[in-house]
Amino acid sequence: MTPTTRIIGLKEFRSNITSLWKEARKKKISYIVLNHSQPVLRVEPIFNDQASLDQLLADISEARKQVKEKKVISEKKLYKKLGQ
Fold first, then answer.
1. Smallest Cα–Cα separation from 82: which of 73, 50, 62, 17?
2. Cys-Cys with 10: which of 23, 35, 39, 47 at CB 3.0–4.6 Å?
3. At 25, phi and psi to the nearest 5?
């Protein structure tokens, strides 16, 4: 089954998160979530394959390291950097 990507609004995502994640796992769907017509999230299911789980754990570990070392920027600074 080829993965499918759907675009949805943030309000719909918040209202239907439970049914959306269940459908995403069942039908292999990823979602691009928009806020005021701007993409803000990519949401995709994680399946129980060890390579994906190992990568997820590595990504979480790296993110925690970056936060600890203060190598992150605020949302406000990010928007400014993006010119928004």
1. 73
2. 35
3. -70, -45
